[in-house]
Amino acid sequence: MPAQLLDGKLLAERIRQELRTARTALGKAPIRLVSLEVGQNPAAAVYVRNQTRAATEVGIEMEVTNLPIGTNEAELVATIGSLNGRPEVAGILVQRPLPPGIDPRVVQSAIDPHKDVEGMHPTNMGSILYREPLLPPCTAAAAQQLILATGLDLRGAETVVVGHSEIVGKPIAILLLHRLSTVTVCHVGTKHLADHTRRADILVVAVGKAGLVHGDIVKPGACVIDVGINQGADGRIVGDVDFASASAVAGYLTPVPGGVGPVTVAMLMRNTLRAAGARV
To answer: In the prediction, which pLDDT does 65 show?
Structure first.
């Protein structure tokens, strides 16, 4: 039986419906999400459009600021500092990639942790070790939401995360540890990757390498979350998982596009409303 597709667009719509209710409860005071970008990147423009559309639907005012291409790290940090002081600004995000010479960690650390709606400030990242944070990293939170949507019992489930980035791999591993999954994290230093993936009840792949995981190294019936976004040989967007072979084996599978991406944007909106005081 082919895998059941986890429709990220449908899940994101359900989440936005809940967020609209939460936004109404906060009253009529403006809630603003500010997007900062140095220069203009065509790839980032797609994300900004999706974010703006979702913000409008939920009732968040999104302010898009494009700084000149020559903006340096100190100037960007100063801009963030001014936004930190604006009370109507609930959230700040900085679009990637940043130009050479600007350290993303310095930039992320400059954001007030209470306005860090990407969940990447060291304070928010550190809080993951103690509990599920108020503002978790959006992509990791999206992967978790998709897994929870299956209704699978996470307690004791064998979970394998392929990729150990700060954005997805590390945080999703810890978030699932809080659910009492038994978690293994694989990376470039892992020997015999297939030995790990073949035993995974839940498999999260977030590497950025098209077709890394084929169906022959997936456990039958597994829940497979494909976080990768890559350009295939024919120009189409593909994931880290070979969709055709994995869909014949897995029990649940996220498509690319249309899986993790839409839910990530929904998590950004959830974080923004949480930063504004909503209980969602």
So the answer is: 96
DSSP lists the bridge partners of residue 164 as: none
Q: Give me the helix-helix angle, 8-25 and 260-275, nearest 10°.
A: 10
Entry pTM: 0.96
Helix (H, G, I), strand (E, B) or coil at 12: helix
One domain, residues 153 and 257: yes
Q: How far is CA 116 from CA 7, 160, 177, 248, in A?
A: 27, 28, 23, 40
Residues 178 and 195: their CA atoms lie apart, in Å, by 24
- Write the CATH number for 62: 3.40.50.10860
Segments in 26-59 forming alpha helices (H): 42-58
Query: Does the pLDDT at position 184 exceed 90?
Result: yes
Q: Are the CB atoms for 259 and 6 separated by under 8 Å? A: yes
Calculate the alpha carbon distances from 176 to 50, 102, 187, 227 in Å. Answer: 27, 32, 18, 16
Give Cα 47 to chain centroid, integer Å: 12
Residue 221 lies in domain = 136-261
Q: Which residue intervals of the chain are DSSP H helices?
A: 8-25, 42-58, 73-84, 104-110, 122-127, 138-149, 169-178, 193-197, 243-247, 260-275
Q: 243 and 169: one domain?
A: yes
pLDDT at 131: 87
pLDDT tens per residue, range 220-235: 999 999 999 998 888 8
